[in-house]
Amino acid sequence: MDPRGARARPWADPLLLAAPALFLILALIVYPALQTVALSFLSKDGAFVGLKNFADVLSDPETMNLARFPARTPPWGSLVHNAIWILLHLPLTVAIGLGLAILLRDVKGSAILRSVIFLGMVTPMIVGGVIIRFLFDEHAGIINAFLRLVGLEALARSWTAYPDTALLSLILGSVWLWSGFAMVLYSAGLSTIPRDYYEAACVDGASPWQQFWHITVPSLRPVTTVVVAMTILWGLKIFDLVYTATLGGPGGSSMVLALQMYFYGFRALRFNTAAAVATLLSLFTLVVGIWFIRSGRREE
User: Fold this and answer.
1) 3-state secondary structure of 42
2) Which residues lie closer than 8 Å to 235 by C-beta, 6 or more apart?
3) Buried (b) or exposed (e) across 58-96, using 16+ Cβ within 10 A?
4) Predicted confidence (pLDDT) at residue 223 exceeds the cutoff of 60
5) Which residues contact 261 (CB under 8 A, 6 or more apart)?
6) In contact, 241 and 9? CB cutoff 8 Å
7) How far apart, in whole angstroms, are the C-alpha atoms of residue 132 and residue 176?
8) Which whole number is the average pLDDT over 66-82?
9) What pTM was computed for the model?
10) CA-wise closest residue to 260 among 86, 61, 124
């Protein structure tokens, strides 16, 4: 290559090396995403209808059924279900992940224990959905066995088969599968905190709680940001777990947006409406992504 040409175009070689990956991203991600957004503004006949598909989705009781929320049992609509999923899932994931990371930090053989806990994260969600059905089964489930053991026999039933417990059972099962991810991140974050901080705090007479609140929590803020962002995205895109465990039922009581999009597109063949749901999910994801990037810049 001519040295003068290389100096004149320093971006040429990096661009050439990245070209195959860029082509795949454009062909398999960017182009389909733009096509989906365009489809959400069109009618079945291809005519431009503005926000009509979005209005149809948001006015559908399967999306929001506020007349039943919260006084009556689900279904409350997929959008409400996703919101509840995130509101319950997020604090439980952070608390369990951080708690396990701290408990296992100085335990001998903790690497094996962390690997066992992390298995839930690497388990295919299709399998995870089947496991959740067994966990909450009235006769074979370990959850109901424990409830009977502590005298709560009134709660012992097949949780996924009843509208008032189906969504909760899925959320709790999802927390069990996802907490290993948070634990691994927090374990890595804890290993970066210098021991000197805790030793200095002990010399100053700080209690374990004060050490946790004033040293551990602030030092793990970047990790917590990642856990929060990834958990919210997990709650927004949840599909296979629900599909396998309850198929959104009974009576739509565990329906979520991603599954509703699937039903719109591949059962009702309402592709434009399905595209509107996909666009809404993309917008929600974009908000989380922007927050995550801005949080990362503030940490820097």
Assistant:
1) strand
2) 82, 85, 86, 89, 90
3) eebebbbbeeebeeebbbbbbbbbbbbbbebbbebbbeb
4) yes
5) 274, 277, 278, 281
6) no
7) 10
8) 88
9) 0.87
10) 61
